[in-house]
Amino acid sequence: MIKQFSLEIENPCDAKFSEMTPNAQGSFCSSCAKNVIDLSRKTNSEVAKILANSKDTSICARLKTSQLDQVFEHNAVSKLTTFKYATAIAATVLLSSNVVAQEKEPVKIEVDSTKPQRVIMGKIAYREPVNKVISVTIHGKLLDSKTKKPISEKLYPNLSIYINGASKNIKIDAKTGKFEIPVLLNDDTKEISVHISNDDKNYNNTFQIDLKAIKNNKLNLNINIKPEEELQNYMIMGGLGIRNHTSKNNNSES
């Protein structure tokens, strides 16, 4: 069964997220002595999973205002569990088919046959492929696409950058636009999500990367944006409310 819900913040908070103490969940607000969960960089499925697993009935969160217009879905049945079950069923059918086929074929006697293969029986489980994780430092410059110069510190102070796989935000040098951020990436990564923000403005985009271009554990990424168009005020923070929508059944069980 799929459960649908949307988010709401009735009373936005005026506290500055950048002045809070970072932690594993987001940041700790000393004013109200609560953790503020940063959902602004999470995908819909990640948001749904966090809220579905949360035991706290009073959640303070940081959101993009666009997330307030989205409908989130949480599947009560694990897809991986279903896949394991389907794999076991498929394997059973395959084994049964082989047995029937062998019964119809005439018995064959082989002379000087090779050593018989070892046969094992037991429950069939699905094993996810393990990706190798590599440590890379992504470096480059954030520039105004019109002037080809660093973005105005006066208009956009305290800009920082976050890249998926990074442990924290890294401040961008206002004078040069340079940044250097260590990240952990899977060895099959082909794109990364980049998040640039200060106290109240935000920019998100996805960039294609080629891991073959890594040299000395470093990968160059230059970012050119139109700050007046792409750095927008759309962060909101406060007590999180959830509106449940009408649930619907998932007939495909996938």
In the sheet with the most strands, the strands line up as 2-3-4-5-16
The CATH homologous superfamily of the domain at 133-233 is called Immunoglobulins
The tally of beta strands, per DSSP, is 17
User: Which structural class do you get from the secondary structure elements?
Assistant: alpha+beta
Explain what the structure shows:
This protein has 254 residues and is α+β, with helices and mostly antiparallel strands. The strands form four sheets. The chain has a five-stranded mixed sheet, with no helix packed on it. The chain has helices spanning 44-53, 79-104, 227-230; strands at 2-8, 21-22, 26-29, 34-38, 60-64, 72-75, 133-144, 160-163, 170-171, 178-186, 191-197, 201-208, 218-220, 223-225, 232-233, 235-239, 241-244. It has a domain at 133-233: Sandwich (Immunoglobulin-like), CATH 2.60.40. 15% of the residues are buried.
Which SSEs are present, and which pair or pack?
Layout: E1 2-8, E2 21-22, E3 26-29, E4 34-38, H1 44-53, E5 60-64, E6 72-75, H2 79-104, E7 133-144, E8 160-163, E9 170-171, E10 178-186, E11 191-197, E12 201-208, E13 218-220, E14 223-225, H3 227-230, E15 232-233, E16 235-239, E17 241-244
Parallel strand pairs: 4-5, 7-13, 7-14
Antiparallel strand pairs: 1-6, 1-17, 2-3, 3-4, 5-16, 7-10, 8-9, 8-11, 11-12, 12-15
